Amino acid sequence: MPKTTEPAPTPAVPLDDAHDLSYEQARDELVAVVARLEAGGATLEESLVLWERGEVLAARCQEWLDGARERLASARGDDPGPDAEPSDAATTAGGAR
């Protein structure tokens, strides 16, 4: 009987190392993850691992952006505190969110 081979397991992408990434590193890796997902061809398991990594990277980017928003507000003297919702002016400044 011919020997059947099972596909090699997908290596686990570390999810807990994102806290060490700079904004630029997390953003660049997130762009690469999205490109791989959009290209298709990955197995379901590989796609799920990529998706999970993308979620972690997106959260890390958001942490950096929130921190930058707080620093800007503090520098302007209108520090709303960590629990305040960003104003429309803060979220649209420079055309970026």
From TrEMBL:
Gene3D superfamilies linked: Exonuclease VII, small subunit
Residue span of region Disordered: 71-97
GO cellular component, one term: exodeoxyribonuclease VII complex
UniProt keyword Glycosyltransferase present: no
InterPro entries: Exonuc_VII_S (IPR003761), Exonuc_VII_ssu_sf (IPR037004)
Enzyme nomenclature, EC number: 3.1.11.6
Catalytic activity as recorded in UniProt: Exonucleolytic cleavage in either 5'- to 3'- or 3'- to 5'-direction to yield nucleoside 5'-phosphates
UniProt main location, coarse: cytoplasm
Enzyme class: hydrolase
GO BP terms, alphabetized: DNA catabolic process
Subcellular location: Cytoplasm
UniProt keyword terms in alphabetical order: Cytoplasm, Exonuclease, Hydrolase, Nuclease
Gene Ontology molecular function, alphabetical: exodeoxyribonuclease VII activity
Recorded family membership: Belongs to the XseB family.
HAMAP family with a match to the protein in the record: Exonuc_7_S
Function: Bidirectionally degrades single-stranded DNA into large acid-insoluble oligonucleotides, which are then degraded further into small acid-soluble oligonucleotides.
Subunit field text: Heterooligomer composed of large and small subunits.
Protein name (database record): Exodeoxyribonuclease 7 small subunit
